[in-house]
Amino acid sequence: MMREQFRQDMQDMQAEVVGIMRELLAVTKGAVNALVHGDEVAAQNIIDENDRFGQLTLDIEENVIQLMATQNPVARDLRFLLSMAFITLYQKRIADYAQTIAKAARRSADKQVPQPLTDLIKAQANLVYRVMDATREALEKRDLDLAMKLPELDEPVDSLNKQFYRELGRLTDEDEIEAASKMVMSARALERIADYCVDTGERLAYFITGERALLEAAEAELDPQKVI
Prior knowledge:
Elements: H1 2-37, H2 40-71, H3 75-107, H4 115-141, H5 144-169, H6 174-209, H7 214-222
């Protein structure tokens, strides 16, 4: 009976982690929309929500500790709990970066950002949404193949981030530069959100297979310079 409850507790934990990922996607979309449209009110609402994500992830971390202390998990069960602890840490970081975008939106609400940079932010954000949704699906279905594809999905995000900085460097008007500078951290935040999704996939792959280096190998195929 206790083992059956343990299994149910782990299923519930997985559902909570998937739910947080789904909410993070919605919050990131909201932050980017606030940035693009100069919506200071929406930006502030997202900023006010950040503490809630901190509490959600902390609750899961405490649940992991309790289950490890009372159930003595081994092998796959232990890998699952450790992976959930790491993944919720990544989720807290994603929430923080969404807040970074919201803060940039609040600061730049009255600025006119050059359209090419706005278009790049929107394009980069759409790619990040794809990575986040794939991460959510991989977590929900424990899909190793999808987890392994996350580095490939992340590559265009990095490329657009570099393009953003090149476009920024072409600006000469001081007012435009000041307005655009408010978006620099948002572009970086989007890149980091996608990176944490890749990290999540790595932890998921470790839970499923017990092997740590699977996603490192996948990343190395895309960029041999990443081989450690």
